Amino acid sequence: MSQAYDDNHILSEEETEELMAKFDRESNVRHFTGIPDKIIKALLILFAVYVFWVTLIATLPEQVRRSAFVGILVFIGYLIYPRRKGMTKRVNYIPWYDYVLAVIGSGSFFYYVINFQTIINRAILIQPMDVIVGVIGILALAELCRRVVGIPILVVATGFITYGFIYNFSYGSSFYSALRRIIHQLFYTTDGIIGTPIGVCSTFIVLFIFLASFLEKTGIAHFFIDLANSVAGFTSGGPAKVAVIASALEGMISGSSVANTVGSGSVTIPMMKKTGYKPEFAAAVEAAASTGGQIVPPILGAAAFLMAEFTGIPYLVIAGSAILPAILYFTGIFFVVHFEAKKLGLKGLPKESIPKFLPLLLTKGYLFLPIVLLVVLMGIGFTPAYAACFAVLSSIVVSFFRKDTRFTPSGFLEAVTHGSRNTISVAVACAVAGTIIGIVSLTGIGQLLISQLTTIVNNPFFASTGTSLLIALIITMLTCLIIGMGVPTTANYVIMATITAPMVLNAGKAIGVEVPLLAAHMFVFYFGILADITPPVALAAYAGAAIAKSNPMLTAVNATRLAIAAFIVPFIFVFSPEMLFIGTTPLSFAQIIITSIVGMFNIAIGIEGFMLRKLGVPLRLLAITAGLMLIDPGILTDLFGLALSAMVVVIHVLMYRKDQKDAQTGAAN
After folding, report:
1. ω before 536 within 30° of 0 (cis)?
2. Measured between alpha carbons, how far is 297 from 517 in angstroms, rounded to an integer?
């Protein structure tokens, strides 16, 4: 790694790209110049045209539309992504076998497009040629997934497909019979590769990826950092608070923890280190905040649209329900960062180096308008697809308000090609995740897993202690964290929604507790995301550690500690759905917000062990207990928590005053 990373300076664009390629597989792309570069860009632009055409104009059968979408992605993917990382240094080089894979891989999906009606008429009686084409298509998709996304999701998918064969063999099927049945399910039905995940991706998610790309080209990421600086840069330990606020804002348009970490972290991590934060803490703050960006409405890492499709709950309801958990997540990090700064005696940035809030908002606040328009349009009844299209157009319009944000023809084309390229990783992950849904649908393994979990939670010991649902949630949490290691947000949620969300729902029913559908899905969504900062595979934390030159594992541990709210809140909204604003009144709504924020304050001082002075272990435990009670939306728990919190604060203040008095007495003597 270059010497540049050893210094506390803001990383250059080249250094940022180097880090992205190292920790974010989807950024590990071939480099082209001249005519090859023009050809690749033309393909990416044509893909964007296809996406907008089929979304806004065409009325193709779903199977045809989705298969063509995957076929185009496979073709372009093999031209852009090399077999391994070291092969990106050779400019304008694509080995012959990647041309072959691009043609036969995409050709497999277009075979279905061309022969759609014939294959549909055959129903499950597909021919040997159909089977061969399906096998080639699945293998080509799997290899592209390995290059773009990584091995973890392939391991999960392979395990499920293997179970599919075992299931068929158990009923006396021959190998070919089992293969034909599995290929039909995974390749030729909307319960497999071209199932719900790729349907939602090709209809909604891809348009929001383009929106994020266009917003990024307007310079909104720099605006977010400047805005955060104007709000918190001058306060104690200001740069860390800037990282928290900026990452929360950037999370509204981005769906990648690693990209968020490297993007804003290249600026904020060196600033934090200069201020006095330890490298491990600085990198952990950025990683935790950037990972949390995926739970911030309105986008929720693009998984909100998948959640709406799986649950049937309107998108805006899901986005609204995610507001308080997101606030608590970032409030918790903000408080810990503040008390860490106080403990270390850190100062803020010089006021002369910080932009003024009102002038900044007046000069660049218009960059928010596309996001505002997006929410308004969906609120008055526009579909997410149409709302996203209008938001993309508005981002182009508002860019002309100032010369430094104005789209040039080259900038416009760059935004289009960047959006198309970013679509590949998400779409490939969704397609592979579709194979898992297909096997679950074919074999009923989901019901088997549910019955096994039900057996565990119905254990007499758990039932007698009233911990059955809690045990089910802990098992589900661990499953999400393990499967989520190295798996992108969208694909991770698809797997969790298919396997573990029903487990949560049925575990509740087994003991007579009605767990709301939204609470179950939000639970698995949260813990799937947390895998990005949870050891041992914590890609976002490792990316931050590379910038900070810190110990990766220690950085991941710190990030997990900072993100403690995300480990607590999901359990609470399962037991108390009011946190998701399910069945609340305006009064209870206000109560929940206020007491929950006070609760996070208590948890932060308990974790950090500092407020005005160091807290002893007994006070830290009392503060954490008070915080947990306050986050729980119940009236009694809130009253109990407030009383306990007041006791902690009073005792702490009295001890602080005694310290001050003793210090004055000592100075006088």
Report:
1. yes
2. 19
In the three-class reduction of DSSP (H, G, I as helix; E, B as strand; rest coil), residue 663 is classed as helix
**Position of tokens 């393909």?**
43
Q: What are phi and psi of 610, to 5 degrees?
A: -155, 140
Percentages of the chain per state (helix, strand, coil), in multiples of 5: 80, 0, 20
Report CA Rg, the chain: 26
Q: What is the pLDDT of residues 186-222, one digit of tens each?
A: 999 999 999 988 998 888 888 888 988 898 888 887 8
Residue that has been written with the tokens 């505002």 in this structure: 372
Residues 6+ apart with CB under 8 A from 114: none
Residue range 561-568: mean pLDDT, rounded: 86
Cis peptide before 298 (omega within 30 of 0): yes
CA distance 665 to 500: 61
pLDDT of residue 2: 37
Beta bridge partners of 614: 610
Phi, psi of 614 (to 5 degrees): -65, 145
510 close to 482: Cβ distance less than 8 angstroms: no
Q: What is the pLDDT of residue 132?
A: 95
pLDDT at 269 over 80: yes
CA distances from 259 to 251, 487, 488, 534 (A): 10, 14, 12, 17
Mean pLDDT over 489-515 rounds to 80
pLDDT per position as a tens digit, 163-185: 999 999 998 889 999 999 999 99
205 close to 426: Cβ distance less than 8 angstroms: yes
**Cβ-based neighbours of 100, under 8 Å, separated by 6 or more:** none
Q: Which two tokens stand for residue 240?
A: 């860390």
Question: Greater confidence, 129 or 470?
Answer: 129
Distances from the Cα of 551 to the Cα of 247, 279, 289, 543, angstroms? 22, 8, 18, 11
How far is Cα 158 from Cα 439, in angstroms, rounded to an integer? 10
Nearest Cα to Cα of residue 520 among 337, 362, 311: 311
Distance of CA 565 to the CA centre of its chain: 16
- Which of helix, strand or coil describes residue 485? coil
| 3-state DSSP of 273-337 | HHHCCCHHHHHHHHHHHHHHHHHCCCCHHHHHHHHHHHHCCCHHHHHHHCHHHHHHHHHHHHHHH
**∠ CA 563-569-573 to the nearest 5 degrees?**
160
